[in-house]
């Protein structure tokens, strides 16, 4: 394991002999986070703390810094800048992805809006004077000829759509630039499904359809509903059958094709929306997805996040990192690879269920077995040999591995036995997380500023429902 130089502590190179970097599937299998992500680095740092109070203060500072990054239009480091949420990763990581993706969308919207304003100024200048000092060549403007012979400016046009031409004017059909859809995390998807089942509402779908119609009209002056259907929903359009030479009258719509029966029904929603829609490019429409509102909601949720919803994803993310690092070393070890993959399969099967948190002790025990393979493989091989000689059962072997790993990471059994039964919650939490930090580097600073240190150790309630002890 190596933290790359150059100040980018979030980059991690995990190599295995001559094969180089290996694919890390386990973090996604257990709903964790990518090994080189910010969330895993946060897990490492929080996992190195020995008190719940320090963990709480550090997380609060993380959220404060994320809010500052958003207000200053900076991307969160260690998170892809423009990827839709990965539903195979934990919800925390998905929310981090949404924040960066929202920032990318805002930047694209600003660029598109400025570009459209320039196009409108150029077109207006050309119309008024015929010659003007412009920054955009006139031939970069797109026009469509109407039935009356006039030229109409195409706004928000992306590119020609196949060889399709408009039925009324014969001009090329252009695909419009449309509004981007919502960014759906797993909790939003669940809420949306429940809302639709409870109310039967399809309002969001209608809003998107109306937006697409407005963008299509702006990009294709002189178009009709049939043109939009041919672009947006080809199955709802029937092309005319080849002529067989028979002589009989036919209506004009039959000679060029026709809409499907559902589109021709009286009161069809598509027809009603088309009749009320105006030609408005997507960049000038009312946003369907408000990036500022969404990010503010995420940051507020992160501030009020219950401890169980925070430490679960952090635990799984750190667990995934440990196995990725171990796989890079143990995959090619003929003596230990079989045992390692048995441990890996157990962790994947256990963590995929919704009740994995009831088996944290077993997961930690298996992890400590893998940790022992990394730190002192000779002890593992010795234990395996003794197990074979004495026909030791699997459960006994696991307990033996656990005992070995506890000794290797420096835990004092005598001190453990002498500790009171009612140890405080900080010590219990630390005992389950500290072993995960033994592979990793010492605590790193995530941002320029260090998290604040408390002035007293007395219990202090905070607004998000946590208690600092």
TrEMBL record:
Q: Which Pfam families match?
A: Rab3-GTPase_cat (PF13890)
Region of interest (Disordered), ranges:
235-258, 411-469
- Which domain of life does the UniProt lineage start with? Eukaryota
Quote the biased-composition stretches of kind Low complexity, using this chain's numbering: 430-447
Mark the transmembrane ranges.
none
- Stretches of Polar residues bias are at 241-258
Show the GO MF annotations.
GTPase activator activity
Sequence ranges assigned to domain Rab3GAP catalytic subunit conserved in this UniProt record: 154-303
Q: What is the protein name stated in its UniProt record?
A: Rab3 GTPase-activating protein catalytic subunit-like isoform X2
Organism from which the protein derives: Cucurbita moschata
